[in-house]
């Protein structure tokens, strides 16, 4: 849609017709013999061709149109929805390599199950800024908070066992999240922490980091990952073991409850998927949408045409001046 930024400037279009009439009615306010003589000379000379006069008027119209700043407004574009600052802290300790997850009759490691479920969760968080923290011996920020969900997913896919160690530093994961989220003014700060063990590494204890998270207003949802029963083959035959005996559910529940979050237990990929679907309900994306219309300035087009007309008039002026001199 075409629009003028200053449409009132179009009122200047009739000025070339109004100025001569004002001169006839009021006369000259300034008496200059040289200019008067020049005016008499021009009045007795040849008049400008009609094409030149029309070109002068066209130049004036183009200049006024440029001054009104025409622009083209495109179709409304929806901006990314303003959601939450959501940090994912994922355990990458050695126990994440245990194959106690089963999907469609196929065994898979805890790490593979986590990646599989998180792929859908991340893709649906349009409007949230998501960051990724991986922790084992220590905690490391893999991606900062970003709307670029594809990049977050790529870094998650690239995470492999042994990347950050073998042990579990839950306290450092919470502490690093607090440090990163404190750089943002948003009040919707959420951490989803997934672990399959107990804190046994790091320089900061989980309960110390918990106090920092509470002071920063960060809500933490925790997920305990790992099956409760697993058939293990040994030289004495098969036996049933609990592969999640190291999971510190007491700590994960305490962290969640004291920050206003919830603790979830995921014993299979299906349960893990249900948990992240529930998290979508607990942490809904803000639905207030902002739209804008792209604007394309068009003032340079009439301005360029006016410039070409002025060049042409300048060339014609030389011929016109020669004709007037011959007449005089």
Please outline the helices and strands:
Blueprint: E1 2-4, H1 15-26, H2 33-44, H3 50-67, E2 70-73, E3 77-78, E4 85-91, E5 101-103, E6 106-108, H4 110-123, E7 129-135, E8 139-146, H5 149-158, H6 170-181, E9 189-195, H7 206-216, E10 219-225, E11 230-234, E12 237-241, H8 249-258, E13 263-266, H9 269-282, E14 291-292, E15 295-297, H10 300-327
Parallel strand pairs: 4-7, 4-9, 9-10, 10-13
Antiparallel strand pairs: 1-2, 2-15, 3-14, 5-6, 7-8, 11-12
Helix pairs in contact: 3-10, 4-5, 4-9, 6-7
Structure notes:
The strands form five sheets. This protein has a six-stranded mixed sheet, with helices on both faces. Strands 1-2-15 form a three-stranded antiparallel sheet. By secondary structure, the protein is an alpha/beta fold. The longest helix is centred in the C-terminal third of the chain and has 28 residues, at 300-327. It is 43% helix and 21% strand.
Most strands sheet: 6 strands, mixed
| Multimeric status of the protein | single chain
Shape: elongated
Strand order of the largest sheet: 8-7-4-9-10-13
Relative strand content = 15-25%
Mean pLDDT score: 80
Count all strands and give the number.
15
Put simply, the count of helices is 10
Short description:
The chain is α/β, with parallel strands linked by helices. 43% of the residues lie in helices and 21% in strands.
List keywords for this structure.
about 325 residues, alpha/beta, three-stranded antiparallel β-sheet, 10 helices, about 45% helix
């Amino acid at each position: 849609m075409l629009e003028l930024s200053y449409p009132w400037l179009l009122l200047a279009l009739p000025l070339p017709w109004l100025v001569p009439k004002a001169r006839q009615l009021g006369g000259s306010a300034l008496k200059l013999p040289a200019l008067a003589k020049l005016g008499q000379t021009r009045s007795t000379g040849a008049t400008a061709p009609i094409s030149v006069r029309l070109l002068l008027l066209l130049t004036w119209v183009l200049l006024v149109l440029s001054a009104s700043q025409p622009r083209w407004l495109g179709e409304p574009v929806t901006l990314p929805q303003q959601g939450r600052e959501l940090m994912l802290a994922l355990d990458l300790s050695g126990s994440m390599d245990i194959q106690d997850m089963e999907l469609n009759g196929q065994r898979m490691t805890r790490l593979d199950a986590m990646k599989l479920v998180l792929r859908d969760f991340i893709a649906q968080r349009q409007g949230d800024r998501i960051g990724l923290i991986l922790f084992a011996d220590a905690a490391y920020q893999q991606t900062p908070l970003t709307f670029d969900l594809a990049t977050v997913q790529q870094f998650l896919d690239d995470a492999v066992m042994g990347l950050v160690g073998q042990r579990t530093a839950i306290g450092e994961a919470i502490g690093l999240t607090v440090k990163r989220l404190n750089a943002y003014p948003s009040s919707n700060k959420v951490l989803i922490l997934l672990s399959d063990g107990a804190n046994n590494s790091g320089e900061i204890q989980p309960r110390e980091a918990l106090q920092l998270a509470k002071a920063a207003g960060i809500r933490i949802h925790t997920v305990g990952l790992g099956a409760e029963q697993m058939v293990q083959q040994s030289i004495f035959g098969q036996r049933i073991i609990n592969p999640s005996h190291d999971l510190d559910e007491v700590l994960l529940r305490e962290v969640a409850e004291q920050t206003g979050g919830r603790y979830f237990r995921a014993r299979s990929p299906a349960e893990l998927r249900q948990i992240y679907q529930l998290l979508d309900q607990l942490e809904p994306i803000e639905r207030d949408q902002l739209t804008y219309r792209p604007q394309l300035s068009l003032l340079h087009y009439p301005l360029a045409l006016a410039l070409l007309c002025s060049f042409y008039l300048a060339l014609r002026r030389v011929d016109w001046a020669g004709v007037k001199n011959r007449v005089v």
